[in-house]
Specification:
The chain is mainly alpha-helical. The protein contains 15 helices and no strands. It has a domain of 71 residues. The two termini are 34 Å apart.
Amino acid sequence: MNIANEFKNRRLKKKKTIRQVAAESGHSATTIHMYEKGEVSLDSISLGMAISIFDAIDTNVEDFFEDYFDIYSSVDKIISQIYESTPREYIYSKLKRRTMMRISRIKSSNRVSDDTYHMLELKYEDAFDTLKYKTATTNGVIQAIDYENEYLPLLYSLRRLEEEIDLYTTRGKILDALYRTDFLKSDLARIADISKIRMSGYLSGKNDFKSISVLSAIRISYALGFRLEDLFYNEYMYVLRDKRKK
């Protein structure tokens, strides 16, 4: 069964007419009809529209689209390609030098207090003292597990100091989760299958996340370790609250 037919079946199982779904979701009956006929592909639906329409037919958005597009598997492949094309720096001396330069840039920007900078230096020294000990028998090559356990927490601290974020916003949650990895914003754009410029618009607050493709939203959520409704909680609440008012 194709996705358009399955979408229609979900409505029929709830014994609702197209007009009822349209009224409950706040979208036109013509729009619903076009999705059911496959005249407009569901893979182009925005997150905001998907939330409202799928709520009307009592269907989980992420599960529905994963069943048809195998999103998780495709994201895993892209992540593997990212690591292959931009391998991590595992040479202890190079990573230490690169990190110290980054810390120096933070200090020269006058973005942090002396106390914060001192705390950052201590984290740096602790992380690299540990890595130095662990690379003593590997010719200065950092093992992947040690990179993740010792270096990524330090990298997270650096990235958080380089950019202020509000964890109560979707943008803030995405950036915070992104900074716990060593992905770049351009990597996230690749994962989401959108342009770097468009991703920059979302992460700067210029673009409304409700307008993002639902497939892109699911890709981002999965890559960062979230369920769709958890990462985009604010969008869910806004759309559903708006629906209840109508």
